[in-house]
Amino acid sequence: MAALTFSLAVATAPANAFGADGDDLIDYQTFSGASKTLDRNGTADIITSSGSMRQRILRLSAGGFRQAGSAWDKQKVDLTDSFESTFKVYLHHGAPGADGIAFLVQTEGPRALGGWGGGLGYRGIKKSVAVEFDTFQNSPDPNSNHLAVVLGGDADTHHSIAEPSIPLYGRPFQARVSYDAFTNDIRVYVKSLRAGSEEQLALKDNVDLAGEVGDFSAWVGFTAATGSALSKQDIYSWSVQGSAG
């Protein structure tokens, strides 16, 4: 039933616009045809979802133990201009579920993949800034439902951290990560995909992305991992508005 509910939400939920000057650099309403434009590593794969409204999705971990996956679009993003990334997520299957996903900006290349477990697939990607959606309490996590900004692939150190008002595990949700290149502000918004839900600002931070990753353009994408607990970690749609790098 959860998979069916999520598929309906993807089909009917309105798209978010970044701004009048933003170009649609990346636009996956589904991941049909994405094998030509999306570099995938580890356990990341493009599969057909279950449920009555079947569609092609990006699955970052397949429900096994000690897995790690990453996916990067071939189109790099200009970090001297503001951009926004919006994606719909469903983390499910295990009880408890682990370990979570991260949206990354990185300059180590399209084969970048970090370690499994609490590193969420980005640990060790040094030239990176990660926004993590963490569903398992590892040290030094405050709980098993939090967001964080992490620099330099150091998964044990949170640059900022917050607890969202919605569950990240077991129910589909939408996330929106916006970056203001003039102020270096990062804002992370989350929204349940249940009918009538409203988007909420869950986390705000200030990071010079170009300074952190060492370049004015970067790859963007996702990582995820499992450890001694597991889950299937799926992206159903993804768009990025901004300028080409």
Brief rundown of the structure:
The chain is mainly β and 245 residues long. It has two helices and 16 strands.
How would a crystallographer describe the biggest sheet?
A: 8 strands, antiparallel
CATH architecture: Sandwich
What is the CATH topology?
Jelly Rolls
Structural class: mainly beta
Strand proportion, as a percent range, falls in 35-45%
N-to-C SSE string, H for helix and E for strand:
HEEEEEEEEEEEEEEHEE
Round the Cα radius of gyration to an integer and report it. 16 Å
Categorize the overall geometry: globular
What's the number of domains? 1
Number of helices: 2
> Which stretches are poorly predicted, pLDDT < 50 over at least 5 residues?
1-20
Tally of DSSP β-strands: 16
Share in helix: under 10%
CATH classification, class level: Mainly Beta
Provide mean pLDDT, rounded. 91
What is the CA–CA distance across the termini?
41 Å
Write the layout of secondary structure elements.
Blueprint lengths: L1 H11 L10 E6 L9 E5 L2 E4 L7 E7 L5 E6 L3 E2 L4 E10 L7 E7 L21 E7 L11 E6 L8 E3 L10 E8 L4 E8 L7 E7 L2 H5 L3 E9 L6 E11 L3
Antiparallel strand pairs: 1-16, 2-5, 3-4, 4-16, 5-15, 6-15, 7-12, 7-16, 8-9, 8-15, 9-10, 10-11, 12-13, 13-14
